[in-house]
Design a protein that fits this description.
The protein is an all-alpha fold. It has 2 domains: 32 residues; 56 residues, no CATH class. Helix content is 70%, strand content 0%. It is built from 3 helices and no strands. Helix 2 crosses helix 3. The mean pLDDT is 88.
Length: 98
Amino acid sequence: MENLAAKIEALRLCAKSIMDIADELAGSLPAEEPPKEAAPTFEEVRHKLILVAQAGFSAEVKTLITKHGASRLSDVDPSHYAALLSEAEAIGEVKADG
């Protein structure tokens, strides 16, 4: 029995050592970054611009597209989609409130 008790104690010490190592490794991990929002798709931007234009803001939609360096939506660089979508949403909010 004495031999078994010694083996059990040795296993407990090993387990503690493993837990200490795991805690140290976990502490060295970089903090997790929050997930990034997915960039809006062409279809999402087009849908929003259609809704804004149908609400009577066609000229404003055309101005937004021009502001982003294009003469039509399909020519807008996809890196501008998030800003374009945000600006289109702002047009509807400002005009609806005003």
